[in-house]
Every structure is written in structure tokens, then in C-alpha cells.
Amino acid sequence: MSDVPYYLPVGDEVQVFTAAWEARLPVLLKGPTGCGKTRFVEYMAATQPRRRAAGNVPGNLITVACHEDLTGSDLVGRYLIKGDETVWIDGPLTRAVREGAICYLDEIVEARKDTIVLIHPLTDHRRILPVDKTGEILEAHPDFLLVLSYNPGYQSVLKDLKPSTRQRFVAIDFDYPARDLEAQIVAHESGIDLEQAMRLAKLGEKVRHLTSSGLAEGVSTRLLVYAGQLMGRGVPARRACTVAVSHALTDDADSQRAIDDVAGAIFG
Amino acid sequence: MTSRGRSSADAIAARLAASSRLVADQLATALPAARAALGADVERWLALAAALAERTSPAATLCYLRLDPARIRRVGLDAIARWVETVLGLGASPSLAAAYCETTAALVGEVDDATLAAAAAAVATLHADGGWRGERVALAFLAAFPTAGRVLGATELLRWGQLAPMLRANLDDGLFFRTLPAAVGRWSSGERASWLGAVEALARRHVPTAVALYRDFPGTLGELPPPVRAALLDVLAVGAAGALPSDVASILPTAATLVSSVPRHGQAVALELVRRVADEFPPGVAPLLRALPRLFEEGPVERFEPWVGHGLGIAEENADAGRAYFALESRTSVAVLRASPVAVALDEAQGVLRKIVQMLSGVPAAPRPVGRFQLRSPLEAAAGDRTIALPSSIDVLDGYEDNRRLYGVLAALLAGRRLHGTYDDPAVSAALASDERPAFLDELFLVAETYRIAHRVAAEYPGVATELAWACRRLLGVWERQPDPAAAVVFDAVLALALDPRGADRPVPPWLAAAAVVVIPALRALAVESATVADALAVASRLAPAFAHLVHPLTITDAEALDFLPLLFDAGDGEGPFAPGLAEGDDAGALPVPARDRPPEELLRELQVLLDDRQAGDGSGAQLSPDELRRLIESGLLKDLTQGTAEDLAGEGLYVTQLLGKLLGDRRELRRIGAEGVGPRRVARIPHPADDSAVFLYDEWDHVIGDYRAAWCQLREITVADDAGVFFEHALLRNADLVPELRRCFQQVRPERYRSVHGLEDGENIDWNAAVEARVERRVRGTSSTKLYTARHRQEREVATLFLLDMSASTDEAAAGSTSGERIIDIAKDALVIMASALEEIGDTYAIYGFSGQGRDRVEVYPVKTFGERLSPAVKGRLGGIEPKGSTRMGTALRHATALMRNLPAPSQHLVLLSDGFPQDLDYGDDRQSHVYGIRDTATALRETRAAGIKPFCITVDLAGHDYLREMCDPDAYVVIERVADLPRELPRIYQRLVRAA
To answer: Distance between CA A268 and CA A251 in Å, rounded?
Structure first.
């Protein structure tokens, strides 16, 4: 278990995901950036009971960062020329389907909709992946699971999941943890003491109040961890908060200064 | 007396007796006594009588003969002879001579000869110059002379007398003379000369104002120290000739109060400034006098001279601008006053401060300016109030960043109020709003509650604790140097001392010690976490009686107070408020120490003013015009207004409810909202009961003065009623044929912004460059990329539009050509329903707001759909709830709309104004018959909108719209819809053209 990533549950997400896993229901993780979605998937991939390890897939997890240039071939696979031969290379999705790994498509709404629809056959009772270029219809490994994630906070009308896609997943909402929990996470991840981590968590809580006033998103747990890591390496707390929080979050001078002032109020 | 002398006297007596029987009888009566009293001088006495008989009238002679000989002997016959000479001087009019004789006989010896002679000269002049009224005026003068002679000097009598005919149109001669204000008797001759000169000057221009200056004004000056009074009178004398009579009339009742409200050490400076303005720009005197309290409240004294100089320069070019400048109503005026290198304006800091408060408290808050810096910020009026009171500028400390830090301290304390329940106890709010609350409860509550909050916030935020300690130390360093601090500074200083971690480890001035010794021990209990706002009120209530007596909080001397102070801070042996080695009476090294047996006079007077009724001693008072009263209330000087019923009033005066509605019930709200520095938008508090909407202040362009009127208009956002979407659905049905057509048009609009994406494995077109490269690569290396295609990807539309709908009362009229009686507003609503439905198709960002209002103090904007909302049921309901309201103050509404769009990310922004007429409001410019002011202001607002990167477009259904829109807009920035019914069809098309051009 030493390879199990650290994850501190904030709600019942572990139980829900476990139940979904047992039923092999695809899962959609929704939440702001840096709140622990990816870490959660890594944790679940490492801890769920499996029939067998997923081949050579480290952590039983294959992650794909989606973007608008992501094509079907990028997911499913393509032929490549090696020497005089044409060789089929599985894409990450195909590999996960074959090996029985969890395929985690991160920020799924960034991908083109004609790419996203490829996953539909895997997310219903069929659990198949048609590979047009090889003529195969792969049946998913029993341990295969598809997990998507996206951040609903700033998605526009044009970048949204189609209903036909959304309704193939169970959704788990993520948010930034409560102060105490977030402090534990920050302390663990950054190595600073709990008291300092609590102050960082407090700062995070305060900064998130600004999401209705100009900040697109509040400060992520990830950034707080970064700040803690800098502090653990001797950077003064206020300076660490400036570089890891205020200046990372926003370019607006007023917001930067306000966050710096609140950090000063908290750290003294 | 020798026999020869007796015979000479007898001869004179015989001649005298022969002049009149009455004289003979009186002579027979008086002569024996005269002989006995005067002895040999009786002959002279007789000669004087004979002269009177020969040259005046028997009446005058009789009057003379009735003089008591003993009195004659006491006064001296020489004085009597001089008096007789003056009577003889009036011989041309025997009746006047007689009247003079009768009036002044009793004054001989009481009033000096020069005065008597001057009176005679005045009588003669009034008689000669007065035509057929001359004798009447002269007699009236004489009737009043016994009193006036004791009030006025010899050189003033004639001048005074000559005023009577000048004021006759509004003040009867007799009344004029009888109502000589007694107060002027206590003035110096120079002051009287100034006053009379001012009356003369005004009498030539506006008699009613001159009458007010003559009869009523002197009684208002009783509170002023003589040097200040003299300076004020001098100002009026110089300025009266050139000031606007209406301005002078409005300022007279309040001039003394306004000058009194200036800190005492600044009154001389203030009047020097006013005198300078009186010399060079008399119309600026009244506005400046009125603005004096704000001037001292908002500006540093060292800025006053350059500020006046700047204003005089403006006045040279434009008199109206000069008046507005000296009234502190123009933006330029405020900006020049604030141009201190170290001052921080709220506008500079508010963006950060509102975010700090929101972060700490979790609740959004908008700053509202409240005059100068106080450590104890004013309370918000309601628990849900989304405003925070902050000073409009801070220049207390010597450095810019230091002043900036003070804003941060205040913001933290204000956030603390929201976090720790300052507004959560209705009983506390009610107690602070009660008319029966004791004097100083408000001030003491702010001390106690700020102390409580400061402890809570400092415990939670170590950084705030550090900043507070720093602020208290620095502020005390400034305040303790003041020899005569205002009451607000005293309370702030007590709070700072209570919060200062140094405690009493240094000298403190006696005025501070005197207050601290009472207040600080009571505050201790509020330092614990469990203390509540009710506890703070209880502390304040216990302390209030100690301040109600206007003198020392305790009946102890300042020296004793200083001895108490170490006990408050748990000082040990040898510790105390004095530096080591400094004993009582040893001033070496101590801070400047004011009088030790009383608090500063300024503090006493200010406290007195706060409590006493402001009535004249004889109960007469001075009647105020509505505008004067309104200005008084707005200036915050009348701090102790009460309500009365008809039975309480003597019948004169004005009912304030006629002016300001029900504002007397909430005195605390009657604050003047000061002008702010540069920047169009700030938030303020408006005293309207049962109204907790956020309020915004906007400048307004005044083309007459060529400047903005700073913080001139008050705008609120008002919630629109909700009709549950009924209108929306019916509108779609009514326009069932139009909606699909427009949807098709808009769908065609959608694919406008595309970008070409290269390097795809699949796409609409072949990327020929990539294909050639792939072919080459295959030849060379044997492998090549498969990404040989391109495609067009739809880009997000980046358009944001705000639709601003005129909801003025005129939109309630039936639309021209409408057979079904549809109102203009209904057609406009239809247009917006269709527009919103179409915009939902293409995903453009848009907002809908309505506007109307009544007057510059009540401009109203109605959010129907904000930018962040979708077309939800609530939005549909609000669209249906739009109804006609009041006026059309377009400029303010446009500025608010521009501010709403300021932080939108969309690169292409539009503001579409939908109106049915020209800009108008009840006070949109001084001339109600002209729309020029409103048109010019709206044109300026539209330019501001363009300068902000937003493209405005005006749509009107007013067929006369060309007349004014071409003044306000560029030709391609407006359109006149000739048939109102076409608006629903035209609006989406206009929109398409606008955004296509973007």
C-alpha cells in the first residue's frame, strides 16, 4: 500500500465511487480545478479490488488530458509505420479497455463532441469499443471503468456536455474541502506543520469568497499546497502566498493586493 | 446777583413772558427755583429760554423751562447751552425742534453732546431730504432716538437714519427705527459700520434681503467671538454689493452657525478665505460660507489657499462655475482640495477594500464615502446593508502608504462588525434609533463596539492586531498634538488609547486623560470573546450620563485624571502617563499642555451645541426658508431636531415634513453626503425608511459651469415586480409569426466567428502544405504525419450587450397608431421578450435594465436580467413586471450601465438605449423649460461610455428624436423608429447589425 496515493475523503465520495466501481458504472467527477479529482481517481484506482492487476498499467489508471484537438485516433489508436511494417498501436482508451484499467478523461468538455461520442458504447450496457480501423469490436475488460472529469464553473453554452453524454454517468460533485480537512491535506502534501497549514486553509476559505466578485474560481487546494511547499523551503509565508496564490490566481491588481492584505492579516 | 444783573434778568424774563401766555405761566413757576439753583447764572438760563422762544416755538420753550434746575446745575449750564444750540439748529421746523427738545431733554447729560448733535443733524437731514414724508421720518427717528442713542455712535446715527427710506418698500419707517437690533449695541463701531454698509449695499439691489440683514441677522451672531463676528461682518460688507441677493438671503440665517461649526482654531483662516473671495468674486461668498464645514472636514488647511486661488481663476472665466466651485459642488473643486501628495482617496482604494471586506466577512460590500477619517466608522443603517462607511479620503498621517494602511485597518474592523454580530440585535438598533436616546450614546456606542470588534478581529487575525497597534500609535501621535480637538477626535483618541498596547507608558494630554479615565475602565469587559453588541450598548448607556453635563466627565481636575490613568492600565510602581522623572508641574519635555482645569473650549461649545435648543433668548429665532432648512439638515449641523405637533408650534416656521418626509425620525441619517474625488461611481446612504437598496453616487455634467457636479445624483437599484412569466408567454404568442423568423435569422448569425484549425487527421479540407511535407517526409524517412486536414471550428462569440429601457411615465401612453390601445411600454417589453429569446439561441451575453426615478436624489435602475443570469423563470417574470415609473434622467442611468459593464471579459460590448423621448427630470438643470442641460449631460455620458470601450446605440420611438439625438450621438449611433409597433421586429435586426459590425 505504500504506492497508494494520499487522499483524504471529504464526504462520501469513496463509498459512492466504490459502489459505482462494483457495478461498473461510469463516473463523472465535477468540481473546480485543483480540488482533488485526479488524486481521487488515482486513489480509487489504486485501492479498488480487482480481478487482476491491469497488465503494465501503472496504478491501474490511464489518464488522458482532453483538448479540442483530441481526435478519435488519439483515443482509440492508429497505424504507425515501423520499418517496412504498418503496426497498429492502441490508443489509451483501447489500452484501458483491453487491460481492464480505469480510463480517466480529464476535462472532457475540452474535447470535440465528435470525439466524445466515441465513448458512448463503453458507457452503456454494451461496454464495447468499436475500432473501425481494425474492424474490431472490443468488449471491455470486466475491470475497465471510464471516469470523466470537468469543471462546470466557467463552462459556456458552447462548451458543455451533451445530455446524451451526461446521462451515461453517475456524477460526484467535488469542492474544496472544509478548512480543517484542507489543512490536513496541505500539511501532508507540503510538509509544513498543521498550524501553518491551517492558516493557509483559512486563506483559501477567505479568497473563495471572491468568486462572486471577479475571480473566476477560488484558490485551489493545489495552490495552497504549492504555497506550503514554498514555505517549507524557507520562503516567508506572505511571499509564498503572493507567488502561489494571489499572483497565480489573478492579474487584477486590486484582487492581488486584497488577497495579499488578507494573507498578511492571517499570517501577521 | 447784583441789582443790575437782576434787572437784566428781569428784562429777559419780561420779554420771555411776553412771547406766550403758556410760557409766561411756566416761567412764573420755574423762575424761583431757577434763581435758587443757579444763582447768577439764572440770567443765562433766561437768555437761553428767550432764544428758544424767539427762534423756535413755545413748545420747545416750555420743554426747556420744565427742566429741573437742580439737574441743570448738575449737568452744567454749558451742556444745556450746547443742547439749546442744537435745538435752535432745527428752528426751521418748529415742530421738529419741539419734538427734538421733548425727546432729548431727558438725555442731556446721559448721552454725549456729539450724539445729541448728530441726532439733530440726522433729524434735519431726514426732514430736508424726505420730501413730503420728511417730517414723518424725522419724527419717527426721534421717537426711536432714546434707545438708538444708547446703541449707536454719533457717526452712525445719520447713516442709520438714511437707511429708513431705502428699506421703506419692505419696512415701514417707524418699524425700521423701532426695530434697531439691540445686539448691535455690543458691537464695535467698526462692526456697526460694516453692517450698515452691507445693508446699504443690499438695499440698492434687493430690499427684502437688506431688511433681513438689518433686522434679523444681528441676533444670530451672539455665539460668535467678537473678532470672528467682526470678520464676518466685514465679509458681508465687502461682498454684499456683488453677491447674488438670493444667495445672501439664503445664507444670512445660517452664516453664524456655519462659521461656528468650523473648528475654532480655523475660524480666522476661514473668514480670511471668504474675505479674499468677497474681494475678488462676491458671488462666491455665500456658496463658500455654506461649504465651510465641509471644507474643513474634507480638506487639509494648507490646501485652502491654493484651492481658493484656483477657484478664483475659474470664476474669472465662468461665474457659474465659480459659484459651483466654492460650493464644493464641482468635481474640479473637490479634486483640487484633495490634491495632497499624501492623501489617499477612497476611489483609489475601494477596489481593494471591498474585496478585503468580502473575503473576511463572506458578504459583498460596496464602500460609501462619509467625510473625513474616523477610527470609529459610522454604522450601517440596516443589518442587510451591503455598504461599508469609509472616509472619502485619508490624509491623517504623513505618508501615502501610511494613509493607505489606515483604510485597511478600517476595512478589517468593518468586516469584523459583520462577522461578530454588530447588526444582529434588533433591540440595539432600535435603541440607537430612538429619539429618547441620551446624548452621546451614538458616539460612546461606537467607541465600545469598535473596541469589542477590534479585540475579536485581532484575536483571529494576527496581522490585523499588528496593524491596529500601529494605527493607534500613529494616530495618537497626531491627535495628541492638537490643542483643541473636536469631540469626534476626543472619542477616537480614547478608543485608540484603549487599544494601544503601550498603555499609559507615555505622556497623554489632559483632555485625553479626562475622557479616558471615565471610558476605558468600562470597556475592559468587552475584550472577552463572549461580549456581545448588547454588552457594548450597555457600556455606552452607562457612560452617556457622564458626558451629558458638558463639562468634565467626572468632577475632577485634569491633574487628578492624569493620576488615575496609570491605574487604568495596571501600571506598576514608577509607571504612569508621564515620562520618568516628570512630576506634576514640571513641563520640561512634556507635550504641549492646555489649560488644566477645563476641557478645551471648542469641545465644550460643540457639546453645548449638540444639546441645547437653538432658539434666541427672546424666543423669536429666525425664520428659515425651505432651502435654508434643507441645507441645514443636510449639513448635519442641526443635530438635535425634534418633531412636534401643531399645538407645540407658535404658528410660524415650516413643518419639516413638508420638506423631507419622515426623516426626523432618523436623525442619524441626516448627514451630508460629501462630494468625492475624481471617479464617477461611489456608494452612499440615502435616508429613506424601509429601503435597504444599495445606493450609488454619480457625477453629472453641468454645461453651464463646464464641469461635473461631484456626487450629484443618487441612484438605487430597485427590484422589479414579478408576474410569474405571464407577460413573457403571452408576448411569445402575440409574436408567434415573428419569433421563428428571427430565430432563423439568428441561427444564421451564429456561424460568424470561426477559426481554421490545422493539423487534423480528419477535416473538411486538405491542408496542402502539410500534405506536401508529408510526402517529402515519407520519401526521406519512410514515415509521415497523418494530420493533413483542416476544419473550421466555431469560436465562442465574445459579445456582451446591455439593453437599457426607458421606463418613464410617458411610456404609459398608448402607442401612436395602436388600435388595441397598447402602451409604448408594452411594445417595448414585447421587443425585449423577442430579443431575449433570440439571444438565447446564439449564446451572446446580454443584460436588461430599466431606468426612471424622480429627481437627482432618486434615480432608479431596475435590474431585469443581469449578465450572469440565464433566461430563467425569474427573469421572464421580471420582464413582465416592467411598468412605467417617473422621469428620464438618462445621463445617470447610462453611467450606471457603463459601470456595470466595466469588468466584462467580452471584447465587444454594446449598450442599447431604448427610449421614447428626450432626457428630462424635475431638476435636470435649473431651467425647467429647457432640455439643454439634460441633453448635454446625456451626450457627455454617452462619450464616457464610448471611452470605456462600449459602443452605445440609441433607439427611440419619438418622432422628434432627430432633434436631440443628433446632439447626443453620432449619426450612426442612433435610429428613430417611426412606428412604435415595428419595435419588436426592428430591435433584433438592429442588434444583428451592431454585433456584425463589431
So the answer is: 24
